[in-house]
Each structure stands twice: as C-alpha cells, then as structure tokens.
Amino acid sequence: MSKQPRKQRLARHTAPLHRRHREMAAPLDRGLRHRQEERGYIYPRSIPVRTGDRVLIVRGEGRGSKGRRISQVDRRARKVYVDGFTYHKSDGTELQRPIDPSNLVVINPDWSDVRRRRILDRVNEGIEWTEETVAELEAAEDEYEAEVTGVDPREADADAEADADDDSGEKEARDWSVLTVPELKAELKERGLPVSGRKAELVARLEEGE
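^ that's the sequence the OP posted. Answer follows.
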C-alpha cells in the first residue's frame, strides 16, 4: 500500500468485492466473547458483517440498546441496512437508512453459512462443528442478546413474521376502488408511482403495483 493519499483513495475506489468484504467488518461484543470463552469457545475480535446478524448501533444516529437485524449488505457502497432504521423523504416515501459497519457491534452473529464457520475453525482447535454444537452456540448467543436488550430475539423474529403475514393479508384483501381520488393519489405517491389519470387508471396502477 502506497503512502500517497491519492493512490490509497484509488485503491479503495477500485477494490474488488472480496476485499470490500474484508473491509466491511464490525467488532463482536466484548461481553459475548467473554461469555463464550468461559464455555470453551474463542471468538475473533471482529468479523465481516452479513445478512442475518443481529447488531447494536453504537455510534451516530439511531444508537441505543435495541438489537436490530441486518437485512441487506451493499458491498459496492460499503453500507449495511438494518430492520426498523428508516427515514422519510420529503414526498413521504419511507426508506432504509444506510449505516457504516464501523458504527455497529455484533451481539448475535449468524453461523448458518458453513463457509463462515471457518472463522471459528481458525481460532478453535479440536472442536467438531456439528449441528448440535452450532445449535448450542446460537442458543447461548440468543440468551446473551436477551440479557443485553431485554427482548428475546426468537420472539422478536416471530412477531416480525406475524406482522409481515398480516400486512400481506391486508394488501391482498384491500379493495382500492372504495377509496376516493385524493386517497388513491396519496397511496400512489407513497409508492413512487404516477398520480395522473382517471380513477379507474389510478386503481389499475395500484393493483399492478401490489
């Protein structure tokens, strides 16, 4: 790596995705690492974030003690998106706010990916990572997250799935024709769709967007 800032900026801008994957790492919670070390498992100090990890926002806007789940990872922009952390545009559209991984602390990593378990293989010798071992590891992480945030992550995920099912059912059962033209235009505006035309056209546009 060159000492010249212009070459460093160029290398960062043109970095391939596998290098950006390594750069997008977040520290593991210190309390979680100590808890697992007492049980005989050694965790690395930091790991590249991935979809499914549960994190705490510790710096910047949105910081607090509420655990959130990473819903999307954008390697090209080096940003991540978490559930429930959104903002509203001037037209009322709600979007997820991008976060830098350095502002996060992982409190409950997702070990479902076999390739990711190789991180544990490098720092733990003589441990066979069977499905029972991984299940025991994840159960301990869920218990730790519940202690830190006061919310059981399994119950939170179940509630989120139930809310998603309810929302999908409401969308399927909704009859757009009973709304007035201003109400239809407001719905179209929230979805970023054109608001011009007669009522029948507005209804058709909403039905196509579902």
